[in-house]
Amino acid sequence: MSLERAVRAKIAGKRDPQQDKEAQEWIETILGKKFPAGVAYEDYLRDGVVLCELMNKLQPGSIPKVNTSGGDFKMMENINKFQAACKAYGVADLDTFQTADLWERKDIAQVTTTLFALGRASYKHPEFNGPYLGPKPADECKRDFSEEQLKAGQSIIGLQAGSNKGATQSGQNIGAGRKILLGK
């Protein structure tokens, strides 16, 4: 098997049809319209129009001009606008897909991951009142320790500090084996 085929198989293996379905249903609910029958999930999202409409529903005016016609570059521009709007909305840069992932259908699983990240980011926007996609992100749990508690923690020696009941690595011969010289 060629390396390229192996890489494609690994990427395709990451894809979860159930997550694709959840993301599609979330988009349909927010936009109030169903995906056309017989059109694949990635094919319907490919030109970026639906993604821009979704972003404008979540945060009105975030993408003022959506290209509905034009060449390939105009459609890829929609995807780029969606990605920029996602980042501005609170989606982490590492959670956003690359334009080629959708346009060339290289990694649709990453596109779905971005949609789930967008769904999680929507929890942090009080102006949006659902539906949400994915689990609610955890809130910060800030702790305040007294000076006495902090000093008490300094006297504790963890096992990684070398007090592992006298265990050492002496006697282990990792790497080069013993060299035995034979007599002449």
Automatic annotation (TrEMBL):
GO terms for molecular function: actin filament binding. Residues 1-20 are annotated as: Disordered. CDD domains: CH_dMP20-like. One of its GO terms (biological process) is actin filament organization. Residues 17-122 form the Calponin-homology (CH) domain. GO terms for cellular component: actin cytoskeleton. SUPFAM superfamilies: Calponin-homology domain, CH-domain. Belongs to the calponin family. This is Transgelin.
